Amino acid sequence: MDIFKFGGASVKDADGVKNLANIVRDYKKDELLIVISAMGKITNKLEELTEAYLSHKENTHEIFDEIKNFHFNIIENLFGEKSQKIYDDVANTFVEIDWLIEEVPDQNPDYIYDQIVSIGEVVSTKIVAAWLNEVGNKTLWADARNYIQTDNTYREGKVDWEKTQQIIARDLLPLMRENIIVTQGFIGNTSENYTTTLGREGSDYSAAIFASCLNANALTIWKDVPGVLNADPKWFDETEKIEQLSYHDAIELTYYGATVIHPKTIKPLQNKNIPLYVRSFLQPEGSGTAITKDSNPIPIPSFIFKVNQALISILPKDYSFIIEENLSFIFELFHKHKIKINTMLNSAISFSVSVDDDPIKLEKLIADLDDEFNIKYNKNLELVTIRYYNQKTIDRVTVNKDILLEVKSRHTCQIVMKNKPLNT
Ligand code: ASP
Ligand code: MG
């Protein structure tokens, strides 16, 4: 049994859906479960809709119409004359949003967000399942909310693994013998039967949950890149595909901000020793990247860039040393304000961290630190992390940069830097 995961980019239009069906047709093995995200950039649009509804904007219905038309268009392109049944099915799903936005928004905004945004995955899977059936695959649409059980932390549902595992083994496994299963990424269900989401880009994680609970042979994530690259092509012209990665390296890369797979994906797979393949839906014949336990790859240097970084230096006002007590106080405040530290360094009397620059959060943090510490604050910086670095790779990324902070461990180097001022 295999698990496939297709993200929004793979099903952004009718051709994408057809291409997905070709990949499924060429999968000649036994049981298959397919996890799919919302189509194209629909999750962003649904977020926009939620925001418009919550803040009583006039264009709420306009945004909603745009979302509906986007899907109806794809249905039309796929099914032509025969579109009535799937059209009705999708239209009925959208009615859930109609009902919701008729009311005054007086419930928990995160709850409302999940009820609206989850619809993107529900409709994308309905369309894909209908298309797979249309082209001759016996396919069953399954509601992920019947399987993935979470607590009621809306927008960040925490999975109840025990319950989820039980239900999947009991209810989903038998269905897989007869059908290809199509289900949603990103969404789950509370014990009171309300929809939750698992955090943006969470569909990879959903796929890993299904893979783990079904003891799948492998999970394949189909992307618009040939595999895991050693840098984001957005930043580098010459990227290299990594043929094999260990779970360990994959976790490190995603932790430092590589966006190719969601950071929570690896652990459930690693726990059950299920291989993860990252392959291209544009070139399905390519070998992609294999992420496994004991691959012993030649370390290729990988580069991860983060922009919009702030470097905060924290210095005790009385010039006392930075000791454990101060550090635990400081860490507690970062935790309280939900600010993730991207890199850090301490000296005798100062502690420096680089974080994503979120001015609202940082202002509150600094207000809390203000009594006991002097704070220095530098903005508009870049953070580059190099895994398996050497001097050549460091030189490559620091051309025309001023380095503000450099932290090295055996395999990883992190540099906080900014552009050198232009010579005048
Ligand atoms: N559709 C959701 C998002 O865009 C989940 C996912 O794509 O993984 O965040
Ligand atoms: Mg997406």
UniProtKB/TrEMBL annotation:
Pathway: Amino-acid biosynthesis; L-methionine biosynthesis via de novo pathway; L-homoserine from L-aspartate: step 1/3; Amino-acid biosynthesis; L-lysine biosynthesis via DAP pathway; (S)-tetrahydrodipicolinate from L-aspartate: step 1/4; Amino-acid biosynthesis; L-threonine biosynthesis; L-threonine from L-aspartate: step 1/5. One of its GO terms (biological process) is lysine biosynthetic process via diaminopimelate. GO terms for molecular function: aspartate kinase activity; ATP binding. The keyword Amino-acid biosynthesis applies. Pfam families: AA_kinase. Its EC number is 2.7.2.4. Keywords: Amino-acid biosynthesis, ATP-binding, Kinase, Nucleotide-binding, Transferase. GO terms for cellular component: cytosol. Transmembrane segments: none annotated. SUPFAM superfamilies: ACT-like (SSF55021), Carbamate kinase-like (SSF53633). InterPro entries: AceGlu_kinase-like_sf (IPR036393), ACT-like_dom_sf (IPR045865), Asp/Glu/Uridylate_kinase (IPR001048), Asp_kin_monofn (IPR005260), Asp_kinase (IPR001341), AsparK_Bifunc_asparK/hSer_DH (IPR042199). It catalyses: L-aspartate + ATP = 4-phospho-L-aspartate + ADP. Residues 4-280 form the Aspartate/glutamate/uridylate kinase domain. Belongs to the aspartokinase family. This is Aspartokinase. It comes from Pedobacter changchengzhani.
